Amino acid sequence: MAPPSATIDAADQLIAEQPPVLASDLKPSSGKDESDLIGDQPFPSLPVFTNKLDERQYLKGRLALAYRIFAKFGFDER
């Protein structure tokens, strides 16, 4: 049985804790390369952190979320 932290509720919580996306980040500027666009939206990039501890926590959360997605689709050791 999966631990409580591996449930979909924990994954939703990780998504909710991500930094907000600014409206200015969604508008392509004239200096950006057009290959970074998906339709009319720019390709999402990693947020910029000033604190290494916050960056590490963000990356660990994203990695845990990726593991949960893989396990959900059966790519685990069962």
Please provide a written account of the structure.
- This protein is mainly α.
- It contains 3 helices and 2 strands, in the order ααββα.
- The chain has helices at 8-16, 23-26, 52-72; strands at residues 37-38, 41-42.
- The chain is flat, with a radius of gyration of 16 Å.
Mean pLDDT: 73
Gross morphology: flat
Oligomeric description of these chains = single chain
Number of helices: 3
Distance between the termini: 11 Å
Low-confidence residue ranges: none
Strand arrangement in the largest pleated sheet: 1-2
- The run of helices and strands is HHEEH
Q: Strand-residue fraction?
A: 5-15%
Biggest sheet overview: 2 strands, antiparallel
Radius of gyration: 16 Å
Helix content: 40-55%
Protein structure class: mainly alpha
Would you report the number of β strands? 2
In short:
This protein is mainly alpha-helical. Helices cover 44% and strands 5% of the residues. It contains 3 helices and 2 strands; from the N terminus they run H-H-E-E-H.
Summary tags:
single chain, 78 residues, mainly alpha, two-stranded antiparallel sheet, 3 helices, 2 strands, 44% helix, 5% strand
Secondary structure elements and pairings:
Elements: H1 8-16, H2 23-26, E1 37-38, E2 41-42, H3 52-72
Antiparallel strand pairs: 1-2
